[in-house]
Inverse folding.
């Protein structure tokens, strides 16, 4: 695509089209990618198909929400930094507005009974959604190991460690992901041809992740981990947030955290917007906006500073090796996160909703949004008929 063709795409056009995708993008990353491809490649031919696929591959190598980064990248490709900022904000804003409205309802100190029922029903489906998300990533990841025995054995080990870490260690999960990524770099590296360089840049997140904070600084730190250190994006943010939000900082109860995850799934836009619900519980509207800005700032930075170097990113053997280790562990962690999410359920009838959601999502492979909406409706009916609601 030439600079002349890009110049014809005005900022108002980018705002309108990226905002439309932000409103209609129910279904998570697959839906976002399909909508962006339909607009930029098929309908308008603003971006060539190969360049779009390269953008998908490159953004999947970055930590944070890949589909959000792809939306920012496409807007950057059409109108440079200004386009990236306008497109990214318009893509994120509709989901943020919706999740703030729903958070105000679902996180009331004394919500109506039907709200409690809807929240309890939707929250009961969340462990099944996590399991469904992780299982769905396995085939493609396994295929990338090739046919050799050693990489496949390491893949199984990394997956198992990720499952255990996601089920048990909460906010320290990022240390495991980074460690396994570094181990795979060491295993794959030819030290005779490629002497070690830049190791400190890989270790820096490990050192940073040991930092502590309190109040709004703690909220900003949780959001930063979600946006900058969550390799794989999506559901890997759940174990990163649950310990901090529920156990360490007491911003929300387990039931409220399940509600936040459900809200992040049922609204359009990136799943990472779950962090806005956590921020709302911690410090109201201001906390939600702070958490959102901090969580998405790395995605904008990655595109604005690095998009022109995406071809080198894809060809870098060390980065590919790191993602082989960390990415496999991410899948395990997403699967493992279903354990603490399931243990957070407190009412007997929620187990029935969870079982039905498992059948719907894992056995029948049906839609996530439908599962949440139906589970919420079942929850409303259950509590109105006298079933106890979580507090």
């Amino acid at each position: 695509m030439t600079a002349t063709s890009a110049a014809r795409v005005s900022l108002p056009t980018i705002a309108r089209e990226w905002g439309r995708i932000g409103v209609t993008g129910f279904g998570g990353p697959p839906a976002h990618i399909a909508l962006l491809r339909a607009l930029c490649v098929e309908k308008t031919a603003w971006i060539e198909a190969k360049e779009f696929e390269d953008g998908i591959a490159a953004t999947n190598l970055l930590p944070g929400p890949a589909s959000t980064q792809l939306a920012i990248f496409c807007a950057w490709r059409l109108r440079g930094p200004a386009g990236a900022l306008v497109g990214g904000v318009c893509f994120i804003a509709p989901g943020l507005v919706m999740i703030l409205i729903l958070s105000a309802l679902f996180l009331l100190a004394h919500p109506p009974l039907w709200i409690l029922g809807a929240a309890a029903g939707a929250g009961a489906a969340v462990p099944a959604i996590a399991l469904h998300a992780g299982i769905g990533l396995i085939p493609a990841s396994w295929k990338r190991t090739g046919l050799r025995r050693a990489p496949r054995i390491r893949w199984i080990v990394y997956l198992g460690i990720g499952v255990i870490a996601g089920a048990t260690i909460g906010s320290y999960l990022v240390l495991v992901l980074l460690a396994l990524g570094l181990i795979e770099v060491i295993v794959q590296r030819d030290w005779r041809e490629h002497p070690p360089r830049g190791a400190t840049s890989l270790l820096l997140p490990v050192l940073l992740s040991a930092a502590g904070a309190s109040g709004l600084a703690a909220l900003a730190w949780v959001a930063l981990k979600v946006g900058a250190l969550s390799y794989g994006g999506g559901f890997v943010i759940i174990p990163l947030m649950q310990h901090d939000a529920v156990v360490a900082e007491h911003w929300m109860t387990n039931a409220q955290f399940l509600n936040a995850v459900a809200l992040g799934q049922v609204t359009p836009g990136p799943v990472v917007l779950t962090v806005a619900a956590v921020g709302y519980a911690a410090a109201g509207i201001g906390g939600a906006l702070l958490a959102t800005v901090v969580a998405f700032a790395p995605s904008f930075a990655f595109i604005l500073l690095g998009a022109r170097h995406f071809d080198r990113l894809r060809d870098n053997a060390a980065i590919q090796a790191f993602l082989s280790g960390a990415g496999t562990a991410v899948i395990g962690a997403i699967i493992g996160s279903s354990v603490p999410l399931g243990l957070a359920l407190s009412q007997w009838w929620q187990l029935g909703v969870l079982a039905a959601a498992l059948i719907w999502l894992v056995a029948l492979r049906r839609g996530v949004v439908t599962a949440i909406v139906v589970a919420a409706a079942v929850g409303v009916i259950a509590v109105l008929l006298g079933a106890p609601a979580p507090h």
